[in-house]
Amino acid sequence: MNLPENLIQVIHQQVKPALGCTEPVAIALACAKGSSVLEGEIISIQVETSKAVFKNAHGVGIPNTGETGILIAAALGALAANPEKGLQVLENINTGLVEKAHRLVAENKVSAKYTTEFEGVYVKAIVKKTDGQAVVCIKDQHDHICYVAKNGQVLLTDEYQEKAPEKSFSLGNLNVADIIRTVEEMDFKSLAFLLEGIEMNKKIALEGLKAKHGLKIGYGYALLQENGILGRDIVDEVKMMVTAASDARMGGSPLPVMTSCGSGNQGIIITLSVALVAEKLQKSDEAKAKALAIGHLINAYVKEHLGKLAPICGASVSAGLGTTAAITWLLGGDINRISGAMQSVAADLTGMLCDGAKSTCSLKLATSAGEAVTSAYLAMNDIYIHDVQGIVGKTIESTISNFSQISKKGMGQADETILNIMLKNVE
């Protein structure tokens, strides 16, 4: 398999539609799979996750419920028992199912805890019914069911490996120039599917502008525009739309989003920022698709170094850098300007913490999207960081390596500290 084929396969794996925040969705999916292999009434549901998954699932809205958190997501997944829907497992949840889920939670039949044994994406669900017990594990990807057992008999082990790119291929071994150059040479037909994400994510942004969900920050931006406090330039338009989409998603909207690397918010910032700039520039569908491919691949590339879920906000660092690269490329920037714009965003946003998935994520998306667009335009005027400063290295690759050290070594206890604060706040 050659490099373009490997990169296309990475894109197909990392860019998928999902309904709701992907951490509670992964929990619901594990519980749905466990429930689907059993018969009878639910006796209990036990969920164990990594710190990062627990943090992101703890306080976020669950679609079609008006509720937040892990327990209701686990109960709904087990009741729906529809794992074939993947990351859209919470689709078509009705009031009857929500009422049953409430009863399971109220009767203390659902429990959740986190473990320090696993990092990144990890969910283990133990579902007990009158028919017996099922154990399901999800690891590495939010929809990667790697283990299923029923009454002690193993039914499935690591089917994901069969779909993975060649073992000799690692996205993290490339550099930014390699990725961009390869995407430029790709056939448009192989990337056209990425355009589907534009309409999907625009639809949820328009829903957010109706001020029905979340913090209503996107709606607030629109009001400020109407009142002449904010302008209608491309930076403010991008900030308004990505924020509105995040408001709706984090507030429990029943609309799906196109994700990036397992994150709906990261899919939102890449897809909408790139699409709006491309439309302003009157770019072709081919240019849009290639810019989206650059954005998603750079996001995945950075995550190869940071990890799937990190203490640093992914919307700012990995998706923010992907968005910046894609927009600078759309503007006609060469690799020096693309890297320079990315360095500016890295210097600006590296300190943004991930304190869990929740309504306030929309504020972080506004910051990240605004800086991505601004830095891209500044780079086209050769205004960017030209030398080593702080955590910014000589190259964007060395800066990303520095991110990795900060995230994995310097912030090793950050997730647990944040979790302790979050849990104390709800006591």
Q: Could you characterize what this model shows?
A:
- There is one protein chain.
- Helices cover 52% and strands 12% of the residues.
- It is of the alpha+beta class and 427 residues long.
- The chain has two domains: 18-163, 60s Ribosomal Protein L30, Chain: A (2-Layer Sandwich), CATH 3.30.1330; 171-425, Orthogonal Bundle (2-methylcitrate dehydratase PrpD).
- The strands form three sheets. Strands 5-2-6-7-8-9 form a six-stranded mixed beta sheet. Strands 1-10 form a two-stranded antiparallel sheet.
- A hairpin with a 5-residue loop joins strand 7 (132-139) and strand 8.
Topology:
Blueprint: H1 3-14, E1 17-18, H2 22-36, E2 42-50, H3 51-57, E3 61-62, E4 67-68, H4 70-80, H5 95-106, E5 110-115, E6 122-129, E7 132-139, E8 145-150, E9 153-157, H6 176-185, H7 196-208, H8 217-226, H9 234-250, E10 257-258, H10 264-280, H11 285-306, H12 318-330, H13 335-349, H14 361-379, H15 396-410, H16 414-425
Parallel strand pairs: 2-5
Antiparallel strand pairs: 1-10, 2-6, 3-4, 6-7, 7-8, 8-9
Features:
10 strands, alpha+beta, 60s Ribosomal Protein L30, Chain: A, 16 helices, single chain, 2 domains, 12% strand, globular, two-stranded antiparallel sheet, 427 residues, 6-stranded mixed beta sheet, 2-methylcitrate dehydratase PrpD
